[in-house]
Specification:
Layout lengths: L6 H7 L11 E3 L32 E7 L8 H11 L2 E8 L2 H9 L3 E10 L2 E9 L5 E8 L6 E10 L6 E8 L8 H14 L6 E6 L5 H13 L3 E2 L9 E2 L2 E2 L1 E6 L2 E7 L10 E6 L3
Parallel strand pairs: 2-3, 8-9
Antiparallel strand pairs: 1-4, 2-15, 3-5, 4-5, 6-7, 7-8, 9-13, 10-13, 11-12, 14-15
Helix pairs in contact: 2-3, 4-5
């Protein structure tokens, strides 16, 4: 979700954006860019990265952040600091720039990206980043009904040390410009269809653009169907629009040890940090 002051500007400029027609996801698995399959076929896999290792079940440090395309000063500093403290990160409005890939490689991270579109030849979309390599990944995208700029979602599965279970991590950037909630519900239904088969631990996170009570009701329906839990915030510094939080982290079969919302100036969204424990 971009700044409110850019809302009308985004609508006006949308026709000028060169959007790729293909739904392509990019991964650094085996140092080769790989096109992922649609989440309509969740069984399609991407080979694990060579430097992969399993997540520590006693402490899975997780971060969700809309990075605002790296437009604001200091994002490299903040992302580097977050990378040192987290094992898994879901990033929205990520761009596959040289700065981004260099930073992730410096922290020995594996990444998988589902590009929503290409701007000046650079992929932009949602990215899953982890110290462990994804065993499976799949992605889909949908078009904004009014402005036709796509939004993407990505589902990745990560190994957990000492367990046959895989941690499913779903990352979504919710569509924004709609009349009513039918298109919004359709996007979340598509996400539900992509992950409903998984009966193990799960994190569903992202920028849901849940800026109205009606949209939040659709999100809560998804949470209920997947039997997810929501975090309670003592100090709620989550990014809000029209009085509603738009970034969320939901979970299942995990125990949150601690969580907080980091306040930053390097994006118009504040990242959510959670330390989870998975009991093998």
């Amino acid at each position: 979700m971009s700044r409110i002051s850019l809302l009308l500007a985004s609508l006006a400029l949308s026709a000028c954006v060169n959007v790729a027609s293909k739904n392509q996801s990019v991964s650094n698995a085996s140092a080769v860019s790989t096109a992922l399959q649609s989440c309509d076929s969740v069984s399609k896999v991407v080979a694990p990265a060579e430097n992969s290792h399993a997540l520590n079940p006693d402490n899975i440090a997780f971060l969700n952040w809309n990075i605002y395309k790296g437009n604001d000063e200091g994002w490299q500093r903040d992302l580097s600091a977050f990378s040192e403290k987290h094992d898994v990160m879901t990033i929205q409005e990520a761009t596959l720039s040289e700065e981004m890939t260099t930073l992730l490689k410096a922290h020995d991270f594996n990444w998988t990206m589902n590009a929503a579109f290409y701007l000046d030849g650079t992929a932009a979309g949602v990215m899953n980043v982890a110290s462990a390599g994804a065993v499976h990944s799949c992605g889909f995208k949908v078009n904004e009904p009014l402005i036709w700029i796509p939004k993407s979602a990505l589902v990745s599965y990560y190994p957990i040390n000492g367990s046959d279970e895989k941690l499913l991590v779903a990352n979504i950037h919710g569509i924004n410009f709609t009349l009513g909630v039918s298109d919004y519900r359709e996007q979340l239904d598509k996400l539900y269809d992509a992950v409903k088969h998984h009966d193990g631990p799960m994190i569903v996170a992202g920028d849901f653009n849940s800026w109205s009570d009606d949209r939040m009701a659709v999100v809560n329906q998804l949470v209920k169907k997947l039997k997810l839990s929501a975090l309670e915030y003592v100090v709620n510094n989550k990014t809000h629009l029209f009085g509603n939080a738009i970034d969320h982290v939901f979970y299942r079969q995990l125990e949150p040890l601690k969580h907080e919302v980091q306040q930053v100036t390097s994006s118009d969204h504040n990242p959510i940090s959670v330390n989870f424990r998975f009991r093998v």
